[in-house]
């Protein structure tokens, strides 16, 4: 029986009792898990590898998280931070550009993680559920809220035919550029995509970029 197959049960209080970890130490474990997934893929992730990297015993990990699946789920939930939270520039065009900036700034690590987990999630319904809850649904909700505010301000018709596709376009470009061009969708790329594609389709005028404003103000 391998270490991955060890089952910790309630009949074994010593094994099932969770050790107390500081938030900093717990976060260190989570970062190690996600980094190993990015580097090696989900299938290659092992408790042994995390124990070695974080200089702890495997028993500590198994007391805290009973299986690899539970460990990964906890790490994903711990990293859940809505990258679009707080975006409200007062205009839909400004919100979409701010979202593009936020998405592009973290595209490298995010894309690697999603790529590594997506394949495994096809065969693991629980992982798929966690992946959607932590990496997909929060961003869909945030973009939906931006569009709702745009409708409320009269910037966008509620029945605009492109409205249902904005989130999938923005997030799709973010995730897929590495497959198509072999490059990550960084901030300049994402902002150009919004200016060249999303805003014209939605009938929105792009705000001036900082460089354009500076040039216009020069004598």
Notes on the protein architecture:
- The chain is elongated and about 60 Å long.
- Helix content is about 65%, strand content about 0%.
- It has eleven helices and no strands.
- With about 220 residues, the chain is an all-alpha fold.
- The protein has helices at about 15, 25-40, 45-55, 60-65, 70-80, 90-105, 105-120, 125-150, 165-180, 185-200, 210-215.
- The protein has two domains: about 5-80, Orthogonal Bundle (Tetracycline Repressor, domain 2); about 90-205, no CATH class.
β-strand number: 0
Strand content: under 5%
Helix-and-strand structural type: mainly alpha
Run of helices and strands: HHHHHHHHHHH
What is the element layout, followed by pairings?
Blueprint: H1 13-16, H2 23-40, H3 47-54, H4 58-64, H5 68-79, H6 92-105, H7 107-121, H8 125-152, H9 166-180, H10 187-202, H11 210-217
Helix pairs in contact: 2-3, 2-5, 2-7, 5-8, 6-8, 6-10, 7-8, 7-9, 9-10
Short structural summary:
This protein has helices spanning 13-16, 23-40, 47-54, 58-64, 68-79, 92-105, 107-121, 125-152, 166-180, 187-202, 210-217. The protein has 219 residues and is an all-alpha fold. The model is unreliable at 1-17 and 211-219 (pLDDT under 50).
Annotation keywords:
single chain, 219 residues, mainly alpha, Tetracycline Repressor, domain 2, 11 helices, 0% strand, disordered N terminus, disordered C terminus
């Amino acid at each position: 029986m391998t270490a991955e197959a060890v089952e910790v049960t309630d009949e074994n209080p010593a094994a099932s009792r969770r050790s107390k970890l500081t938030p900093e130490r717990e976060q260190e474990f989570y970062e190690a898990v996600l980094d190993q997934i990015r580097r090696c893929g989900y299938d290659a992730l092992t408790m042994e590898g995390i124990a070695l990297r974080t200089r702890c015993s495997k028993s500590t990990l198994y007391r805290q998280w009973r299986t690899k699946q539970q460990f990964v789920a906890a790490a994903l939930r711990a990293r859940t931070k809505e990258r679009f939270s707080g975006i409200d520039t007062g205009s839909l065009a400004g919100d979409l550009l701010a979202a593009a900036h936020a998405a592009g700034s973290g595209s490298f690590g995010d894309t690697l993680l999603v790529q590594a987990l997506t394949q495994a999630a096809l065969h693991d319904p629980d992982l798929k559920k966690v992946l959607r809850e932590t990496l997909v649904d929060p961003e869909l909700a945030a973009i939906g809220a931006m569009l709702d505010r745009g409708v409320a301000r009269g910037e966008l018709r509620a029945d605009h035919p492109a409205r249902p596709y904005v989130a999938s376009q923005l997030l799709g470009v973010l995730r897929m550029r590495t497959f198509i061009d072999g490059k990550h969708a960084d901030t300049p790329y994402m902002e150009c995509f919004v200016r060249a594609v999303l805003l014209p389709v939605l009938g929105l005028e792009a705000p001036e970029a900082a460089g354009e404003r500076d040039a216009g103000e020069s004598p």
